[in-house]
Design goal:
Oligomer: heterodimer
Shape of chain B: elongated
Number of helices of chain A: 16
Number of helices of chain B: 14
Strand order of the largest sheet of chain A: 2-1-3-10-4
Largest sheet of chain B: 8 strands, mixed
Structural class of chain A: alpha/beta
Strand content of chain B: 15-25%
Distance between the termini of chain A: 50 Å
Structural class of chain B: alpha+beta
Chain lengths: 468, 410
């Protein structure tokens, strides 16, 4: 019997639920990092820890019999892939949140009517692109663009999107971020999901009985959605053309801060460890926002941002998907060096990509990666057919060997590779942090001067600490 | 490793293609005869052509094949054409708006996801559109054209079922449902699910009863429309224009001697329909349908131009169409070397006379051929009739052709 467990926010409550049900799982508690926690009292149970988003997918394709994740991720999968392979067995009652369509409180269009009557295309950014699309279709929005994001979707409105689809526990939290809910799309909490074939053909009774909680009742929304006035936005958009710069969050943040200091660019409110969406830069007509590095090339391509600090890996992933995209690397910044490698488990009898091609297989080779387009290109260039690319959303090492054969991932020191009993069979390329820009924006008279000022400052930052 | 065809698709084998081309040819000839001109729109269109309000329902849009193109970083999605009429309206707006009336037809494939395995995800349609005419006579012309095309395929009898989108929409508006509810109910009716009507709880119980009546009875004469008028129009005068249109079409069809059934449960169709909706049925199967869509051209950016059109489903027609007479196949056994030229010449003459002349490339089984022309033995041409087993000798190709013509083999 195979059970997929969520990592992150649901970890603590899920561990408590399992303990209460008599399935104490060692190494699975708040903040624990083991991907294969073991349940001592139940030897027939195999558990693996995934990003919540992957759980719905893993259960749907039948790699796992049961899984625990929030309902919004199940619906995100089903919105695009009309499948009856996933059965929602029951609500577990914790991890409540609501998926909202939100606009910036400073924006003019804060109601569905106002949004519907817009003549221009509506930009919608979300970690839930499929639900965003079905929301747009149901609301009869005439013309819209969906920007899938890895995170920080709430930071985009009003300058870089009219709407964001975000999950939050309360609408109060949204207001604190300068957002107003336009619609509540879905109420969600942790739920137990099962693969239909497993449910029909396997005996899961013991686990199901322990994990089903019939007393939980409906998921309550903590407050009704109203289109309130909200706080005025902290900054208004001036009529003057603004150059926009995107800075990364996550583990690139401390290195980026050091680098910007060397470049003499003083940015307030961009401190390691503190969440900030909109730091301030002491330059007129320059706006800074903090978003995920994965999302930057697409955002720069669209002109939502003029400049961004991201990794070459993400730029390349973008260019493989959109070869004529107007984004280019302007500077190599010299930090955040990683190698993008192909990994397999130690016991797999291959030592190179060529060996992989020769390997006798009964089924398609499964290549997992966060870099979907790089993985796709790797399989294509190396004639690895038939092949399936399995997109992942973090914790990718856990996919090998049960749920994927090869992993395309980045590595800095190799310690993660060793810890998970993996080996490198190929190095695809080396990547480091870089400044990327929109080629069209750089030619614009109203932006050119400010852009070259920023680029020059960063060039000096690189020279102050030469690329080794 | 054997690679099967993609899920939800079908292969058209030689015998299927023969039928397909026959249907296509009859439909084309019929349309050309009525003064319609052929168009072909691209397989790829922008998604927003179809999301423009009121053109395709969210349910249908949820099943289109949409994706980001290689330059789709702006998030602009393209789709594999899910419908023929909307692209035809776009083509008209882009290229033909100067024409007072555009009579267009197409034979095109449509794509929509289908998960049950009962239908194909790629469906061919023969469609005709009359853009620029607002008169009921235009709808009747299209109906007649559709019937003629079906009749040419030997499909008989064909039943016409009529409904009216304007009338349905006015009714639902009268019920005082919320905008969202109204759209949902209309969606259901257009998808052929009229059970949804039983659950409607509006603000007007009297209209609800009338709606049940509307869906409960079926008529087959202009008198039926007048009956409807007496029952419904007093409480909902806004129905008058739709009733007038329906009455006009019914009386025209009666005058032309076409049988029909007014049946509001048959109102399958698209959200862009505004007036009459019709379906063609035979042997209990829906062969196609159409209707009036006066608001579509403005919605895709054109002027205020009325339009109407229909489409026939090739898959259905292929199942029901009569077997058509096949051209006679003749097997030519050719001489080697010097004599090959003579054999080629005989085959050429046979093809010119309308026969299928195939060279013998080592057939083991020749029962598919009525005649075998053997050029190998001695002087002249040996002709074998496989029906009777008789052999005879013809001295020249001309004599051979004369003989075959007399035998009525063409």
């Amino acid at each position: 019997m195979k059970l997929a467990l969520p990592k992150g926010q649901l970890q603590e409550s899920t561990a408590a639920l399992l303990k209460e049900a008599g399935f104490a799982i060692a190494d699975y508690r708040k903040g624990s990092r083991s991907y294969r926690p073991r349940c001592e009292g139940f030897p027939g149970l195999f558990t693996k820890v995934f990003h919540e988003r992957d759980i719905a997918i893993q259960v749907a394709i039948g790699n796992y019999d049961l899984g625990i994740c929030r309902l919004d991720w199940v619906e995100e999968l089903l919105a695009k892939y009309h499948s009856d392979a996933v059965v929602k067995v029951g609500d577990l009652g914790y991890g409540k949140r609501t998926l909202y369509a939100v606009a910036a409180s400073s924006s003019e269009a804060k109601s569905l009517e106002a949004l519907r009557s817009r003549s221009q295309s509506l930009r919608i950014v979300s970690e839930y692109p499929n639900l965003a699309e079905s929301f747009a279709l149901k609301q009869r929005l005439r013309r819209f663009q969906i920007f899938p994001a890895w995170g920080a979707a709430g930071v985009y409105p009003p300058e870089n999107a009219e709407l964001a689809i975000v999950a939050e526990a309360t609408s109060k939290r949204l207001r604190e971020q300068g957002l107003v809910p336009v619609a509540a799309i879905l109420q969600s909490s942790a739920c137990l999901v099962a693969n239909r074939n497993s449910l029909e053909g396997k005996d899961l009774g013991q686990l199901l009985a322990a994990l089903s909680r019939p007393d939980v009742g409906d998921v309550g929304v903590e407050e009704a959605v109203g289109v309130g006035a909200g706080k005025r936005a902290r900054r208004s958009v001036s009529g003057e053309p603004v150059v926009s710069l995107a800075l990364p969050d996550g583990h690139q943040q401390p290195h980026t801060i050091d680098f910007l200091n060397r470049a003499g660019l003083k940015i307030d409110g961009y401190d390691a460890g503190k969440p900030t969406a909109r730091p301030r830069i002491g330059l007129d007509g320059v706006m800074v926002k903090v978003i995920r590095p994965q999302d930057m090339p697409l955002q720069v391509a669209n002109g939502n941002f003029d400049l961004a600090i991201t990794g070459r890996d993400w730029l390349l992933d973008h260019h493989f998907r959109f070869p004529s995209s107007p984004v280019e690397e302007l500077l190599e910044l010299g930090f955040g060096k990683v190698r993008i490698v192909a990994l397999v488990t130690q016991d797999m009898p291959v030592s190179s990509t060529d060996d992989l091609r020769e390997l006798k297989r009964d089924s398609a080779l499964r290549v997992a990666s966060e870099y979907v387009n790089i993985a796709d290109r790797y399989a294509y260039d190396n004639h690895l057919t038939p092949c399936k690319v399995v997109p992942t959303w973090g914790a990718s090492e856990a996919f090998l060997p049960e749920d994927a054969d090869v992993l395309i991932d980045n590595t800095q020191t190799g310690s993660t590779i060793a810890r998970h009993n993996l080996k490198v069979i190929d190095t695809l390329f080396e990547s480091s942090a870089c400044l990327i820009g929109n080629t069209e924006a750089m030619g614009r008279l109203d932006k050119r001067e400010r852009i070259s000022f920023l680029v020059e400052a960063m060039r000096r930052g690189v020279e102050a600490h030469p690329v080794s | 490793m054997k690679v099967p065809r993609c899920k939800g698709t079908r292969d058209l084998l030689p015998q299927d293609m023969t039928k397909f081309r026959h249907i296509e040819a009859e439909f084309r000839n019929c349309c050309l005869g009525w003064g319609y001109q052929e168009i072909r729109t691209p397989v790829l269109e922008y998604l927003h052509l179809f999301t423009s309000a009121g053109t395709l329902s969210p349910d249908m849009l949820g099943r289109v094949y949409s994706f980001l193109d290689w330059d789709g970083w702006s998030g602009e999605r393209v789709v594999l054409r899910p419908d023929g009429t909307i692209p035809a309206a776009r083509l008209y707006v882009e290229n033909l708006q100067n024409l007072p009336i555009a009579k267009l037809f197409y034979v095109e494939n449509m794509f929509a996801f289908e998960g049950t395995g009962e239908e194909s995800r790629e469906r061919w349609q023969c469609g005709a559109e009359l853009i620029g005419g607002s008169k009921p006579e235009g709808d009747v012309e299209l109906l007649s054209l559709g019937l003629e095309a079906i009749a040419r395929l030997g499909i008989d009898p064909v039943e016409i079922r009529l409904a009216h989108a304007g009338l349905l929409k006015t009714f639902l508006e009268g019920l005082g449902l919320s905008g969202e509810q109204e759209a949902e109910v209309l969606d259901q009716i257009f998808s052929g699910n009229v059970d949804v009507l039983a659950d409607i709880k509006g603000r007007n119980p009297e209209l609800e009863k009338q709606l049940q009546l509307l869906f409960g009875i079926k008529g087959s004469s202009p008198g039926f429309v007048e009956n409807l008028r007496s029952v419904c129009a007093p409480s909902l005068p806004a129905l008058e224009p739709s009733l007038n249109e329906l009455a006009r079409i019914a009386s025209l069809l009666t005058a032309l001697g076409f049988g029909y059934r007014i049946d509001f449960t048959s109102g399958r169709g698209f959200e862009y329909y505004t007036g009459i909706i019709y379906s063609f049925y035979s042997s209990g199967r829906r062969l196609g349908g159409g209707g009036r869509y006066d608001e579509l051209v403005p919605l895709v950016g054109g002027g205020s131009v009325c339009a109407s059109g229909f489409a026939l489903y090739v898959d259905e027609l292929m199942d029901l169409a009569e077997e058509m007479p096949r051209r006679e196949r003749i097997l030519v056994k050719a001489k080697d070397g010097e004599g090959l030229k003579d054999s080629l010449e005989v085959a050429r003459l046979l093809r010119g006379a309308g026969y299928i002349a195939e060279f013998d490339l080592g057939y083991k089984e020749t029962s598919g051929f009525r005649w075998i022309v053997d050029m190998r033995a001695g002087e002249g041409i040996e002709l074998i009739d496989q029906l009777s087993g008789e052999k005879q000798r013809k001295s020249s190709p001309a004599e051979l052709l004369n003989f075959l013509e007399e035998m009525g083999s063409k």
